[in-house]
Design a protein that fits this description.
Helix content: 25-40%
Bound molecules: 2-acetamido-2-deoxy-beta-D-glucopyranose
Number of domains: 4
Strand order of the largest sheet: 7-8-6-9-11-12-13
Distance between the termini: 65 Å
Number of helices: 20
Oligomer: single chain
Radius of gyration: 28 Å
CATH architecture of the largest domain: 3-Layer(aba) Sandwich
Shape: globular
CATH superfamily of the largest domain: Peptidase S8/S53 domain
């Protein structure tokens, strides 16, 4: 049957070679196609090779161009050509074209990536590097020996593994030995170490090694063997989780679990490959342990690329039989450089559990970052000791593992234990259990009571330290929480200079019970704030988020090394401090610029998003995949709805409030102005989407009532709006500008209402077409929104139907679809 194998073999080989991309020789494209479109049709049209699907992402594909051409994008160029030919009317606009089905196109360019850095400890400040004396470590207590005997642990380093059982500082360990005593050791659980390799030949790992869940993306092939001299990090992390109970080194937290390795850190990999890695064997790998991220230098502000973000959403929604992949991230080692994990888009993702460190004395180590997205801490290096684990080599041990890199895998190990007693836990159940079972660290910090939970939260320690016993006990009969629901607030335009000094600039938004009912949202888990702040020295800024209960999250902190001039551009900060709150009431964001210097800034806009447990599980829907410019989606949607919502909701928050301040912060009457502005902005665009109108019967009346301000102010607001409208309609652009100047002169005392116009006039002259590859500022898009509205009918080269917009419009279409679904859901709710 040789002919049979000659048929099958090439197919098999082709599949194996699929992921073996050669970025030095070829160009690769990650493309999201409209559902049902055949990728082969696109590749043949473009003369590209179809490489296959992009990991587990539905309708995402990889294409290859044989020749490598810098600064040339085959697909983008073809789309441009199509656009050009349509302009020339060589092809009708209605004529369907394969290129119209491209929802996202991203050329994979390695040199444009930020490096992914292992979270090993940075050099310790002097005084912290002295090692503990041998005699001290050997001061084993009888108890430790008894435990080892009882559990038949013969590993020579077990007694040095103080994080598992600490007999020098009793209580400063993960409290796992009692769990093992009940024969919970990780049977049936699988942890995947996403790192620089995993030494599958190590006698301390071999027996637990899980080949099916493993892959090498750096030197493509099935075995993630360490190859470079410093490919040791992944193996050390793996040992912490799953080092076998034998006579080598020590044991892992879940020493009977399976351990897989996905190797991505030894070379720069493309966004597409990283996205594939994050979903690798995601029906079999349950927990992904990631001890790396963007540099922790207190300067970088990097988030995973859209493909990787999608992979993570895909993972929590479809991985592990729809229970959701569990992503554990080391929080980062940049505390000594003022780094804050909210400036890292991996650790501040709602889909990841971010783990910080404490040392063997229960103290906060100098490196471990603090932030409002931190859920939990666990043990790592500091106070003259480290984590003792396995190393690369057949029988090699390591006694200096540390940094938050060493903390993350311990929590991953605890999760592996919990999944043994309750494999039905969802990714969100795991987060609930993490919050609820964490034990407060008795150290001075900014501990604040989360009244909804009756648990204290600290930005330095999260909800406390992980306790394996408490976690597993709670997991045993944990009832799954209902599915996720969410409420996304509208964009709130602020556009106001930030005062320097301690005062800050506040902007509030009122969330009503009705809004959350309509959103099917019962109680909060994660809260995010996406914002735009212009500032000439980013590190001078800090941001607080105050919830309706008064709980304050420091979502952004001052970073002395961060001299970036771009401020915050569509950046999403996250907080877990409000877990369990209802979310109803006034949310306030306070932006501060405490350094009084020549560097100044403006708070442009922000948007609140609440995620949590649904009220009615039956109507809950999975979150749509994030879009290229997820938080720019107002360029379509919010022209109408958002601004209306803004008006509707935001205004009452400042009702009757003097521009004073309830606390130390200077609360300017920002929202009052905001609403006036947004009303003005939304009116001229004027064509409320029909389905939007249906979702809210009060669509029109709502923006027009009291505004929560005095009659005089109302008259002023309506007057201003009417004037603007009249002039726009009658005179068009030039007159508009003139009028604006006049108005501003009249209203010099309070020019806020026109700030937005101001903002737009900076941008209105810019082309609207936003390249998919360009991470466009929101200002640009917002400008487009108004520009479109005001310049309707002009035959403009840049009228927004540009090539890329083919892509992004379609993305928005998806969004529209999602919104229609939401609308349907609300209606269901109303019945
Ligand atoms: C630690 O585990 C023991 C059982 O081994 C348990 O009795 C104790 O309560 C646990 N500690 C905490 C803080 O839960
Ligand atoms: C421990 O649990 C595993 C998996 O459930 C089982 O196979 C094994 O027999 C148990 N060992 C003991 C001593 O009960």
């Amino acid at each position: 049957m040789w002919w049979w194998s000659s048929l099958v073999l090439p197919i098999l080989l082709a599949r194996v070679c699929e992921a073996q991309r050669n970025y030095d020789a070829h160009d690769y494209y990650a493309v999201h196609l409209r559902h049902g479109v055949q990728p082969e049709d696109l590749s043949s049209h473009l003369g590209l090779h179809y490489e296959g699907p992009l990991g587990e992402l539905e309708d995402h594909h990889i294409f290859r161009a044989d020749e490598r051409q810098h600064e040339y994008d085959h697909i983008e160029t073809s789309i441009q050509e199509l656009k050009w030919r349509r302009r020339r009317r060589e092809i009708g606009a209605e004529e369907p074209h394969i290129l119209d089905h491209i929802l996202l196109n991203e050329k994979q360019e390695l040199h444009k990536r930020f490096p992914l850095v292992k979270r090993e400890p940075s050099p310790a400040p002097p005084g912290l590097i002295s090692r503990q004396s041998k005699s001290e470590i050997k001061d084993y207590t009888q108890q430790g020996l008894d435990i080892a005997e009882e559990l038949a642990i013969a590993d020579p380093n077990f007694q040095a593994q103080w994080h598992l059982f600490n007999h020098i500082q009793p209580g400063n360990d993960i409290n796992v030995t009692g769990v093992w005593a009940t024969n919970i050791t990780g049977h049936g659980s699988t942890v995947c170490i996403v790192d620089d390799g995993l030494d599958l030949d190590s006698d301390d790992l071999k027996a637990n090694y899980f080949a099916e869940g493993s892959y090498d993306f750096n030197d493509p092939g099935p075995d993630p063997k360490p190859r470079l001299s410093d490919d040791r990090h992944g193996t050390r992390c793996a040992g912490e989780v799953s080092a076998v109970r034998n006579d080598i080194c020590g044991v892992g937290v879940a020493y009977d679990s399976k351990i897989a390795g996905v190797r991505i850190l030894s070379k720069i990999i493309s966004n597409a490959d990283e996205a594939v890695a994050m979903n690798y064997a995601y029906q079999k790998n349950q927990i992904y342990s990631c001890s790396w991220g963007p540099p922790d230098n207190g300067e970088s502000m990097e988030a995973p690329n859209i493909l990787i973000q999608r992979a993570m959403v895909n993972g929590v929604q479809k991985g592990r039989g729809n229970l959701g992949s569990i992503y554990v991230f080391a929080i980062g080692n940049g505390a000594a450089s003022d780094d804050d994990c909210n400036f890292d888009g991996y650790t501040n993702s709602i889909y990841s559990v971010s783990v910080g460190g404490i040392d063997r004395k229960g103290l906060h180590p100098y490196y471990s970052e603090k932030c409002s997205a931190q859920l939990v801490v666990t043990y790592s290096s500091g106070s003259s000791d480290y984590i003792h684990t396995t190393d690369v080599g057949q029988n090699a041990c390591y006694d200096r593992h540390g940094g938050t890199s060493a903390a993350g895998p311990l929590v991953a190990g605890i999760y592996a234990l919990a999944l043994e007693v309750n494999p039905g836990l969802t990714w969100r159940d795991i987060q609930y259990l993490t919050v609820l079972s964490a034990v407060k660290v008795e150290q001075p910090s900014d501990w604040t009571m989360n009244t909804a939970l009756g648990k204290e939260f600290s930005h330095q320690f999260g909800y406390g330290k992980a306790d394996a016993w408490a976690f597993v006990e709670m997991a045993r009969d944990w009832k799954n929480v209902k599915p996720q629901a969410w409420y996304f607030g509208p964009w709130l335009h602020v556009k106001h200079a930030i005062p320097q000094g301690e005062k800050g600039l506040a902007s509030s938004f009122e969330v009503t019970e009705t809004m959350l009912k309509e959103a099917n949202l019962e109680r909060l888990e994660h809260v995010t704030v996406t914002m735009n702040v212009e500032h000439t020295r980013r590190g001078d800024l800090s941001v607080e988020l105050k919830s309706p209960t008064g709980m304050v999250s420091h979502i952004a902190t001052h970073r002395r090394n961060d001299a970036a001039k771009e401020g915050y551009v569509d950046w999403t900060f996250m907080s877990v401090a409000h877990w369990g709150e209802s979310g109803i009431g006034k949310w306030t964001v306070i932006v501060k610029d405490t350094n009084v210097n020549e560097h100044k800034g403006t708070f442009t806009d922000w948007r609140l998003k609440l995620y949590g447990e649904s009220i009615d599980a039956k109507i809950a829907k999975p979150l749509p995949l994030p879009k290229q410019h997820d938080d720019d989606d107002h360029d379509v949607v919010h022209t109408q709805t958002a601004s209306v919502a803004t008006t509707t909701v935001a205004v009452p928050t400042e009702t009757g409030k003097p521009p004073g301040n309830p606390d130390d912060h200077q609360h300017r009457p920002v929202n009052q102005k905001v609403s006036a502005t947004t009303t003005a902005g939304s009116k001229p665009t004027g064509t409320p989407a029909e389905d939007e109108a249906q979702t809210d019967p009060n669509f029109l009346p709502r923006p027009f009532p009291t505004f929560g301000v005095s009659k005089r102010t109302q008259i002023w607001i309506y007057g201003a709006v009417t004037l603007i409208l009249a002039f726009l309609a009658a005179l068009g652009g030039w007159w508009w500008w003139m009028r604006r100047k006049n108005l501003r002169r009249w209203m010099a005392r309070d020019e806020y209402g026109f700030e937005m116009v101001d903002h737009d006039d900076d941008d209105a002259s810019r082309p609207l077409a936003n390249g998919n590859g360009v991470v466009g500022g929101k200002g640009k898009r917002r400008a487009g929104e108004l520009y479109d509205a005001f310049a309707e009918g002009t035959d403009d080269e840049e009228d927004g139907d540009g090539v890329f917009d083919l892509g992004s419009d379609d993305e928005d279409e998806d969004e529209d679809q999602g919104r229609k679904e939401m609308a349907g859901r609300y209606r269901d709710e109303d019945r």
